[in-house]
Design goal:
81 residues; alpha+beta; 4-stranded antiparallel sheet; two-stranded antiparallel sheet; 2 helices; 6 strands; globular
C-alpha cells in the first residue's frame, strides 16, 4: 500500500520516516519529495508497505504523531486525476 505522509518537518529524513514505519511493519520504500532546484524537502513524502494490514495500522498509529517537531498527516495515497 502506498501511504502519503504530509506536514513533514524540513529536517525529517527518509531514514527518520523509515524508522517510524518499520516499528509497525515491513517497509519497501520511502521517498521524501524534494524541490527540483534547491534539493530541499517539499514537506511531504510517500512510504510503500507491502502488507495492507500493517499499512493500515501505520496510518492509524502515526497520523497526528510528532516527528522532528511537527505533527504529521498520514493517509492512504490517492491517485492523481
Amino acid at each position: 500500500m502506498n501511504i502519503y505522509v504530509g506536514s513533514l518537518s524540513y529536517k525529517a529524513t527518509e531514514e527518520d520516516l523509515r524508522k517510524e514505519f518499520e516499528a509497525i511493519g515491513q517497509v519497501d520504500s520511502v521517498n521524501i519529495v524534494k524541490n527540483r532546484y534547491s534539493g530541499e524537502s517539499r514537506g511531504f513524502g510517500f512510504v510503500e508497505m507491502p502488507n495492507k494490514d500493517e499499512a493500515q495500522l501505520a496510518i492509524e498509529g502515526l497520523n497526528g504523531r510528532e516527528l522532528k517537531g511537527r505533527r504529521i498527516n498520514v493517509n492512504e495515497a490517492r491517485l492523481r486525476s
